Amino acid sequence: MKTRKLLLGLIGSIIGLIYLSPFYIIIVNAFKSKKELFQSTLGLPESLNFDNFIEAFDRLDFFHVFLNSLMITVGSIVLIVIFSAMAAWMLERTKTKMSGFIFFAFIAAMLIPFQAVMLPLIRMMGKLNLLNIPGLMFTYLGFGCSLSIFLYHGFVKGIPKELDEAATIDGCSKWQTFWYIIFPILKPITITVSILNTVWIWNDFLLPSLIINKPETHTIPLRTFFFFGEYTKQWHLALAGLTLTIIPVIIFYFIAQKHIIKSVTAGSIK
Amino acid sequence: GSSQDSVGDKVNVDIFQFKVEAKDALEQAANMYMEKNPNVKINIQTVGGGDDYGAALKSKFASGEEPAIFNIGGPQDMIDWSEKLEDLSTESWVSQAYDGTLDPVTKDEKIYGMPFNQEGYGFIYNKELFEKAGIDPESIKTFGDLENAVKLLDSKKEELGLKSVFAFPSKETWVTGLHLSNVAFSNEFGNVTNAFNSKELKFKYADSLKKLVDLQADYAYMPDGKKASLNSVDYSTQVEELFSLGQVAIIQQGNWAYGSVVDIDEDLAANIAMLPIPLEGVKEDSIPVGVPMYWSINNTKDEEVKKASKDFLNWLYTSDEGKDLIINKFKFIPALKGYDTDNLQPQDTLAKEIIRYSNEGKTMPWVFMGYPSAWGQENLGADIQQYLAGNMTWDQLVEDAKATWAKARK
Amino acid sequence: MKKNRLAFWGFVGPAVFAFTLIVVIPLLFGIYYSFTDWNGISSNIKFIGFENYMEVFKDKGFLDSFIFTTKFTIASVITINIIGFSLALLVTRELKTSNVLRTIFFMPNLIGGLILGFIWQFIFTKAFAALGEVTGATWLLGWLSNTETGFWGLVILMSWQMSGYLMIIYIAALQNIPQELIEASRIDGASACQRVKHIVFPLVRPAFTVSLFLTLSNSFKLYDQNLSLTGGGPANSTQMIAMNIYNTAFKFNNMGVAQAKAVIFFLVIGGITLSQVYITKKGEVEM
Amino acid sequence: MSNVTLNNICKEYDNGYKAVQNVNIDIKDKEFVVLVGPSGCGKSTTLRMIAGLEDITSGELKIADKVVNNLPPKDRDIAMVFQNYALYPHMTVYDNMAFALKLRKIPKNQIDEKVKEAAKILGLESVLTRKPKALSGGQRQRVALGRAIVREPKVFLMDEPLSNLDAKLRTQMRTEISKLHKKLGTTFIYVTHDQVEAMTMGDRIVVMKDGFIQQTATPQELYENPNNMFVAGFIGAPQMNLIEVNINEENKNIVASFNDIKISIPLGKGKILKKKGYIGKKVVLGIRPEDIHMENVFIEASKETSFNAKVEIQENMGAEIYAYLNVGGENVTARLNARYKLKDDEEVVLAMDGNKIHLFDLETEENILL
Amino acid sequence: MSNVTLNNICKEYDNGYKAVQNVNIDIKDKEFVVLVGPSGCGKSTTLRMIAGLEDITSGELKIADKVVNNLPPKDRDIAMVFQNYALYPHMTVYDNMAFALKLRKIPKNQIDEKVKEAAKILGLESVLTRKPKALSGGQRQRVALGRAIVREPKVFLMDEPLSNLDAKLRTQMRTEISKLHKKLGTTFIYVTHDQVEAMTMGDRIVVMKDGFIQQTATPQELYENPNNMFVAGFIGAPQMNLIEVNINEENKNIVASFNDIKISIPLGKGKILKKKGYIGKKVVLGIRPEDIHMENVFIEASKETSFNAKVEIQENMGAEIYAYLNVGGENVTARLNARYKLKDDEEVVLAMDGNKIHLFDLETEENILL
Lengths: 270, 410, 287, 370, 370
Ligand SMILES: Nc1ncnc2c1ncn2[C@@H]1O[C@H](COP(=O)(O)OP(=O)(O)OP(=O)(O)O)[C@@H](O)[C@H]1O
Ligand SMILES: Nc1ncnc2c1ncn2[C@@H]1O[C@H](COP(=O)(O)OP(=O)(O)OP(=O)(O)O)[C@@H](O)[C@H]1O
Ligand SMILES: [Mg+2]
Ligand SMILES: [Mg+2]
Description:
The complex is a heteropentamer, with one copy of chain A, one copy of chain B, one copy of chain C and two copies of chain D. By secondary structure, chain A is an all-alpha fold. Chain A is built from 13 helices and no strands. One adenosine-5'-triphosphate (ATP) is lined by residues 13, 15, 17, 19, 37, 39-45, 193 of chain E.
């Protein structure tokens, strides 16, 4: 028993290292000059030189775009979480043809390739004067609610209907039932939904580039792509920038991950 | 629309441009211009990440937030965007354009684009290595000369510390399908317009082109020792890694590569120059020089916006301040005349080479903007990859090229 | 009853509204464009019936990319699920490092698709080459230069990225298996392998349904990673459908044909994934 | 006044299933009424209609003499305890109990008072700050009760509140709920499928089957005079023995016989059988296990109802024994004093208490003697 | 031969918790032994050590005279029935039963034979092709048994197999398992926390508490002579009344008194008390509810043990009544014949059966009389 566990632990560590190796490449190269980067891609940097980070921070206007990204991500997540949870709860609790159809439509939409709706979407967004940050958040809601509703729906199934009824008898309206009872119980799946959507929205390039491509509203990925020029990719800066970009998400993930394990569970399985 | 074009009493000029490398300089220019013209507000949007300008521009227009100034690439763009293009033929800079540079954007006497800059490409070589190998670059004029030099270099690989003579990035179909093929086709068609109007491709100089391909491929650095693996060599490997680290002696690239080299090794960048790309038996001692992109003005905008846009471009390319920016900040090779004074000469070694070739008249035009849409990269470039991988003979490639060209022009 | 309906729309309405505006209406427009000759720019759009669809069926490139996409999807769906499932089995073994490993395996999801492709390109062409030169393993050289390495490069990239995501789904499923069933099988005399095969595997089938759905649709729709890793090359042999559609629309300026391709594509993956869900759902057990 | 009246209440679900049919119950103020019946008989549906969680298809429901058919739950002044408690998992015990009051915007200090009082009644004072997760089954149950109590409703509804508890706790909570009912003096309507609960707690019991009411009566009445075979079999544990017998008249005596066993029916009952024309027909004879005796004195005195039996298996309950007997091929259970030490497969003589014999019509299953 | 011997078995969990301590049980071939005790007392742990699902910390476990401490479950020739049945939900009933045999690579036709036979014994023939989900609770329970039966193991282990069934089914399955034990003639080790099950099923009962064995004896022995207060309270329902009393000698009589109630202790028991020096000390008096009587005759004859009580609440069980009484401030339960119609708050006179009085040391809780 003991040796077997040890062996498994060893295998786990090895696989873990393999999974980490790309991150190794990102991080060591973020410390190298461009020349060093091409001379020895795999080796450790000659010195722990933060110049790339400083330059990337500067060129990205990191503080500013970080705030933009943060605002967009948080805003979109709030919209997605609230409206998806609301919809999923109602869809699960209402057993009519209509609710079945709507749910199906949400799921089916996960199969639509974005490229197929890109131009008509942009055209409409322009007509509706939504080529701005609120518009972008709204777009994320439109695209993000499918998976989110799917996950919430599965989780709601596991919440006894009696809780809703108890709340009704205690005197709650539907609205109160949702906010006082259901939404707090959805916390684990809300965290999952937030993590998955954060990972997506935080890193998204295409939608912001189409909807809010103005210097003052740039997000981190939009700026990061300025390191990728017509011919040359400023790898040393891009990797430093990338490191700066993913650190906040990793921190967020670390804080939230205790819950995600329980949650995708409940969301997707039951 | 008009209301959103002006904020307060300012005229709003939106620029939507593709060249990431020019982003900072353009912003600087805009700021300078706005200082002088407080009634104008210039907003610059740059598309990052490389080659997606076409899609971005389309969605920009689809969104209704049409820019006042944007870029087009050649005859096909001119036709596609014809609804939106302002005639610039009455502008003052037109008279200063070099011969032929306006052809791709001229239709029915109307001129729809202002040249961005000039670019040229050839065989960039490492002077120091040539010296060490005892080769006089001046003497290389013909394909034969080149071939001999290459063979000599190849034989001295070890002592020169070379991995190989060439680095050939066939992964980048624009290098093969556009630039390299241009050497043959510019001689077949003569100019863009002919190419653009031609219903068929004769591929007259197929053999000579094959030699250029073969020479580069045979003596190129192959990652796994097989020719097919050239298809994984990209620009970065070619220029930044192999060439800039002194591991290969010659690469087929343009003056833009200077920036890449200088980032890695400034000394090396100061010590490079350009050999011609000789099309054997046709035109040997010259390099292709052309205009990669044009500025265009959106004709649906208000008159004042259009005027401000024209003024800005005029100022940028013809005023003294503007010229200084173009040369020293943009690091462009100007496509207009009038940059003669000493302080307006490009400093980088490659740009100097292009100008030298231009001045000596040893150039051939760029015609690949006249290829059918995406044909050069998606068809010819892809076929060259097939050829290198051994999945296609050169004859098959030629036949396929003719067929796909004809089909596209049907 | 009326009040119920009001409440229903009050809760479902906002999501449906956003969804309709952002997805449904553009999709309908997209379908409309597939019957026109629109090039993406011009304002005069002509209705041309099924011509674009005929065009699609004549397009060999589309067929090739369809085949490539299908092959890729099969390979990646299998590897991603196997790896994800194995990782889940590993980290549910109460190892001391389980929690750390869970984080590590999920971390690839934290990087955006385009950048991920560039990084792996870097790894395949530079790191693999460096490794290959050091070890003398020639198979590590020249990656992404041909269809096979491009194909497997994509599969490796996607497996690396997605397997952690699926691992989480599978962990959830594994933790839902009652411990007694495992013990019952031990008493019945099952070895570790037999247990996985006869007990664990069938019991996580609902998770398989979900995972297959997610991986199938993700693999079919893959664009970012395809673009940045191989760019479809060499010779368009690793071009997947999404990229083919994209190029048709924006490089060849054939918006109508591109939309027709998108419609066909949507119908096909819709058909495939829905029948997958139907088939796998049928074999599921409810506890 | 908080009487509850169900007048011809019916419930048809959307799928057309008729879960409750023509139910009439008149529940008096302060009464403890238990709805009992097998799974799926419509108990919960009935309760949920009273609560307002389910629409009433037809009929009239009155609470405190007011028709409430169309009133939403919160305006009916009822409280409900659910089978699985339905405690709000994210709230502390205190908040669970205070929630309904908070919604009613009752001042904080009043809420506090009421919650503390209820907690005291239920012995929950020490766990007020815990979340439900950290409670034992019995405590959870009490919180569910507490949540209902603080509301001071006119009517208390409970749907199998004890079914998730283990045997010991169930017994204990049973008495606690009875005590609570006494203390609060509120109308209780209680659903269970456990006849022991029904018997021990209800002032009156409503026995349901397939959506119909079978009998409404006090526990003793139900036990002694079941309306029909279903009620007879449902109430009492071990179950009443039900044996198909032939009724014949032998020497003026009415005799019930099966296989080679003969039981004389007491005079009064015999008369009714005769009057109703059952002579020569088959009926079902019912006798409760505790009405089968083994005392010699008794057997001597009850020769006409004695019979031979073979012990198949026996269960020792400490104070008594359940003997599972084979009587002429029929399975019969007897509940005997533990002082009788039976051996398996032993042949014994037993006698029924003739006065406790029940007789049911074979077809209609109705009690013939009523 | 399939006797099972536990020799000083201990179990310490990884977290240092000692779940089972120095357990010695000697189980004979074909015996039906029940482990009983409150939740958390270590029953399951003991059973799981026998099954091989849990490592044994120290001590020796023998099955059929062979030490099996280090044998994996599959090699111990045991079968186990789990509390929640642990049926494989994705397999049909047939496959569930056949699974273990298939793993043993037994020929198809033999498997078929065995499964069919087990199904016949358990009355599962008609549901062999169904999945567990489509079965009722009782059927599932039987499948779980069937899965164990087909293996023809030396020892049958069952961990609370009936606790998920409702009361009626539980009673029924209880007898079925007893019958099965008779039929199979295999050693059964059965865990439950329900004393009724323990009493009715076991040849011998092992009562556990906090990891220690309290008493190992036959049901009757356990009921009549519990080793200590714990066993006395645990076995029997309603529970034995346990009252703290003062022992004094009054006029040669040994008298137990509490508040103003006095009970005379019968001669023999009094002697023991005296001999062991309990006079003037406090002890615990135990009397089972059924040993408190209300018959006038009895009370007349037992003046020395009669007392006054106030009825607090009563539960009508049909044939009898559980009266919850207040006797001088102490709660006392009496189990009375249903013919006594008591009123709440009524004052009554009752008497204990002096012979059935138990006495326990206040400190050690041991039975003084043994
Ligand atoms: N929403 C519904 N739609 C259709 N039929 C239903 C619905 N709810 C319950 N039923 C059916 O109505 C019948 C009565 O259900 P009800 O819940 O009242 O039974 P019950 O007596 O409470 O049983 P249990 O003791 O199992 O709780 C059942 O046959 C059930 O299947
Ligand atoms: N894996 C474990 N680690 C630590 N302690 C444990 C573990 N499993 C059980 N215990 C503890 O050991 C004690 C005995 O547990 P066991 O399951 O044997 O009780 P039980 O008698 O079967 O109770 P129940 O009637 O509730 O099933 C309990 O206090 C329990 O908390
Ligand atoms: Mg119910
Ligand atoms: Mg246990």
